[in-house]
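Weekly structure sync, notes
Attendees: PL, DS, HV (note-taker this week)

Item 1: CoA-binding domain-containing protein
DS walked through the input record. Source organism listed as Rhodopirellula sallentina SM41. Sequence as pasted into the shared doc:
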Amino acid sequence: MNPIDTFLSAQTYAVAGASARQHKYGNKVFRALIASGRETYPLNPITEEVEGHRAYPTIAELPTVPESLSIITPPEVTRRVVSDAIAAGVRSIWMQPGAEDEDASQAAREAGLNVIDDGACVLVLLARE
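Item 1 (cont.): predicted structure, written out as C-alpha cells:
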C-alpha cells in the first residue's frame, strides 16, 4: 500500500492545528475528514471546541491513540507534535503543505511511521473519494 492509501485506511484520525475558525486550513481539513465519515479528533491547545467536537491540547490527552495524524502547524510546532505522535504510538503522519519539518520527518521515519511530507494536500485527495 502506498503512503497515502496507508494514511487514509486508518480507523481513527487527529488533526493537529484544527481551528475553530472556518476559513483556516486546519478547520477545512478537520471538516473534510469528518464529512468523509472518519472518526477524527481536533488537536489545539488553545481551543476548547472545533465544529462541535471537543478539542484536545495534546495527543496524550485524546481518548484513543489515532492511527493517522494530519499536521497543520508551523514547522517549529510540527517537531513537538511529531515527537508526541511517536511517543503515543501514532502509525501515520501527513504534514500538510507549510507544516513540513525535515528533522520531524527524519525522526518519524526512524521510528517506523508512515510519513507524507511531499507537499501533497489531504483536501485534494479527500475530494477525489
